[in-house]
Amino acid sequence: MAKTRAKKHIEESCYDLAVKRVELCFDKFDKVVVSFSGGKDSTACLNIAIEAARRRGQLPLDVLSFDEEAIPPDTVDYMRRVSQLPEVRFHWYCIPVQHKNACSEKQPHWYPWLPGDREKWVRDLPPEAITELQGFKLGMAIPQAAPLVFGPSNGTVCQILGIRCQESMSRFGMIAQKPKHITDEAF
Q: 125-132 — which CB contacts under 8 Å span 24+ positions?
């Protein structure tokens, strides 16, 4: 069983501490990128990262979105508004990244935006869509595809994700991989 740390009272707000952590990312990495789905978690991370980038003079901030195709129209509209913010440089990918399919035992994965299944698409491609990514191969999931966007020519890259690990053990496992993440020991 994992050891939990005792809570300790601190004077700074959660928001101020989050901005400081993202500022540390700007100090330690050549490029900072925010992953954005249009949901509340990624929106919170984006707003924190914009504040940190503003303080560091690092605007516009790179924002990476892998559009999952089957998202509500209001979310698409919101993503479009965010993509137009002067503080961001939005990279809107509509490629067939692999997702786990919780609706079928026969088909354990699904792929949005499959070119051969255009008649099955939930909606049309957004006009901002980037539909090709050099090095992408069908079957890659987002964690394998994301590094292709900002390759070695960008130096070291920090990708900021907003996820709630209480919802899923696999999400918790993703953020618990200390070698790939800035941990409490870094502060």
A: 125/94, 126/67, 126/76, 126/79, 126/80, 126/92, 126/94, 128/80, 128/83, 128/90, 128/92, 129/67, 129/92, 129/93, 129/94, 130/91, 130/92, 130/93, 130/94, 130/95, 131/93, 131/94, 131/95, 132/95
Phi (first) and psi of residue 110, to 5 degrees: -135, 160
Q: Label residue 63 left, alpha or beta by phi (over 0 means left) and psi (-120 to 50 means alpha).
A: beta
Strands 99-100 and 88-93: unpaired
Spatial distance between the Cα atoms of 152 and 172, rounded to a whole number of angstroms = 28
How far apart CA 164 and CA 175 sit, in angstroms, is 10
**Main-chain dihedrals φ then ψ at residue 61, nearest 5 degrees:** -95, 135
- Whole-prediction pTM value? 0.83
Residue 104: what are its φ and ψ, rounded to 5°? Answer: -150, 130
For 143-177, what is each residue's pLDDT tens digit? 889 999 998 999 999 999 887 766 666 666 666 66
CB neighbour list of residue 122: distance below 8 Å, 6 or more residues apart: 69, 70
List Cβ neighbours of 53 (8 Å cut-off, separation of 6 or more).
22, 26, 32, 59, 60, 61, 87
Residue 60: asked if its preceding bond is cis (omega within 30°), the reply is yes
